[in-house]
Design a protein that fits this description.
Blueprint (H helix, E strand, L loop, with lengths): L2 H15 L3 H4 L16 H15 L5 H6 L3 H13 L8
Helix pairs in contact: 1-3, 1-5
């Protein structure tokens, strides 16, 4: 799965967590997860859970605390998938 495909999955997940988010925000590499996307702690947890479920990667709590932007999240997922983690998107 390449970076572009990971972005598409992230957008799908964001639409599940907040069905109007993609209408309000154009998600970019530098978009802050909390302030830029307007997600609260519960929604961020939902996003991470969905990523783990859909893509089969495990994001540790320490890693999640380090994420600042949407680009950081995509890079983390991309790295984990490259290391052999993950599963095909259904």
């Amino acid at each position: 799965m390449d970076r572009k495909e990971i972005w598409k999955e992230l957008e799908k997940i964001l639409a599940i967590v907040d069905d109007e988010l993609l209408e309000r925000v154009h998600v970019r590499e530098e978009t802050a997860i909390r302030e830029g996307l307007g997600l609260d702690s519960l929604q961020i947890t939902e996003v991470l859970f969905e990523i783990e479920e859909r893509l089969g990667v495990k994001i540790a709590d320490e890693e999640a605390r380090e994420l600042r932007t949407a680009g950081d999240l995509v890079t983390l997922v991309e790295t984990k998938l490259a290391q052999g983690g993950g599963k095909p998107v259904e």
